[in-house]
User: Which sequence fits this backbone?
């Protein structure tokens, strides 16, 4: 088979499709938020030792209780294995509640409990919430600011202006963070797409195959079926390149790749793994289905609307387990077996499907 498989990087997605985890789902942001919460509790506790800041009696007790609960939440985030969507929502709700309680337990919220205290919750929302949840968070900022600042010397027009100004600044800051996050996620997606896509054919590449390895074996195990590897190599492709030029060869490869992808179906992994070699991976229920799928792929190449007709030699191998090895290594061993069957198809004249069991399906 063309190319080397050695030294392949081990890589996996941190956020599976449909996962409710936050986009940055490692332990690092969870611990960072935990330390920030503990720091906030420590700074807030300083007010307990200053006269003339907190309302005496019940006000001071409630304020101290909120700071203690902030410590508890900080420890909770420090112990999280990863930052979940639910944990972020909890942080935001508690952050809003803390601000309201603190503002109402101080003697003058305008001086001692400004809406800037909402910045942590807003930043967390902008960094991790889905669009709908983030919009809801922005909508509650003005009324929360109104409740907090109403416990101050401000009233009437002055209160309204301060609510508009301070909530407006907070919302603009949150929108800026959200915009930067969207841009970063878009760039990350584009980079991932470039690193997992063959630039000529638009098919997956070897890196993408390795990313899908664990999922493929898991589906095979759960559904109690076989994983089939079809290795296709275009017959006489070098003759086409030599006779009509590499541009014609590239165009033919693009058209053939499209035909193979359409024939393989949406549940298959289709990848270019060498010069004119294409790999199709898919679960199959029986040997009969293996033979049927192989013939469909052969016909897709032979009948593709090409300026210069091409055929393909196809080798097939199946397995129910990764042979007690790791998913990626087990997958490449399966591909190697199919690769050897493909060479048998070449030696038999091409334009045929050969299984690893030596069953020859001549057209």
Assistant:
């Amino acid at each position: 088979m063309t190319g080397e498989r050695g030294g392949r990087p081990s890589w996996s997605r941190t956020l599976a499709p449909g996962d409710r985890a936050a986009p940055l789902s490692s332990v690092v942001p969870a611990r960072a938020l935990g330390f920030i919460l503990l720091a906030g509790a420590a700074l807030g506790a300083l007010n307990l030792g200053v006269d003339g800041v907190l309302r005496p009696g019940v006000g001071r007790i409630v304020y101290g209780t909120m700071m203690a609960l902030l410590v508890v939440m900080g420890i909770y985030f420090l112990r999280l294995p990863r930052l979940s969507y639910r944990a972020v929502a909890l942080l935001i709700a508690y952050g809003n509640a803390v601000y309201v309680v603190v503002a109402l337990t101080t003697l003058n919220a305008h001086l001692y409990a400004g809406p800037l205290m909402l910045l942590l919750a807003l930043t967390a929302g902008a960094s991790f919430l889905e669009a709908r949840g983030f919009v809801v968070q922005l909508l509650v900022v003005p009324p929360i600011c109104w409740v907090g600042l109403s416990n101050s010397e401000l009233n009437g027009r002055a209160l309204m202006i301060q609510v508009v100004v301070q909530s407006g600044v907070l919302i603009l800051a949150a929108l800026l963070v959200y915009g930067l996050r969207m841009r970063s996620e878009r760039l990350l997606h584009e980079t991932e797409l470039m690193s997992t896509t063959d630039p000529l054919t638009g098919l997956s590449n070897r890196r993408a195959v390795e990313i899908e390895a664990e999922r493929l074996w898991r589906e095979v195990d759960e559904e109690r079926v076989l994983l089939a590897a079809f290795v296709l190599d275009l017959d006489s492709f070098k003759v086409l390149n030599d006779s009509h030029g590499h541009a014609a060869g590239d165009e033919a490869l693009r058209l053939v790749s499209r035909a193979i992808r359409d024939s393989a179906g949406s549940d298959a992994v289709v990848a270019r793994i060498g010069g004119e070699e294409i790999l199709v991976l898919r679960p199959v229920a029986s040997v009969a289905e293996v033979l049927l799928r192989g013939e469909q792929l052969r016909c897709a190449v032979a009948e593709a609307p090409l300026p210069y007709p091409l055929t393909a030699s196809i080798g097939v191998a199946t397995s129910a387990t990764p042979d007690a090895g790791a998913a990626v290594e087990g997958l490449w061993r399966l591909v190697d077996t199919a690769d050897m069957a493909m060479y048998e198809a070449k030696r038999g004249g091409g334009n045929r499907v050969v299984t690893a069991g030596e069953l020859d399906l001549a057209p």
